[in-house]
Design a protein that fits this description.
about 140 residues; mainly alpha; 434 Repressor (Amino-terminal Domain); two-stranded antiparallel ribbon; 2 strands; about 5% strand; disordered N terminus
Amino acid sequence: MNVMIENGPDAEAAAETTEFADLIRERRAALGLSLAQFEKRSIDPVTGAQVKSGWVYRLETGESVIPPRKPQLRALQQATGLPLHELQDAAAAQFFGIERVWAESGEASALVRRTERLTEDQREQLLRLIDAFAPPGQSGH
């Protein structure tokens, strides 16, 4: 996964985004769910962790909340129907100022997702193959 961690003034501004809160608020509204209905759907299928309506309310109204961990993100995935990676990206941007850097083509994203299914040895072989075609530091332009 390619991520860029920003430091300095830009990181502070990125940490103040509401990307995750906006995503949850807009999706809940689009689904027409009350906070109570949303809470009932927000259950992690792996751990059984549930995201409470009070946390969602505080998130949506801009109050301080504890950043969600993976079980809470999976619970929110159940409630929203959104892909987990979309929730993770928005949470990373809002709570930690981390923005994922993507190539202009969607192929880069597809390749990254596929490599996650490879073994460590297979990933190392793939990296050597990629280095043979485009050595580190070589620009493709």
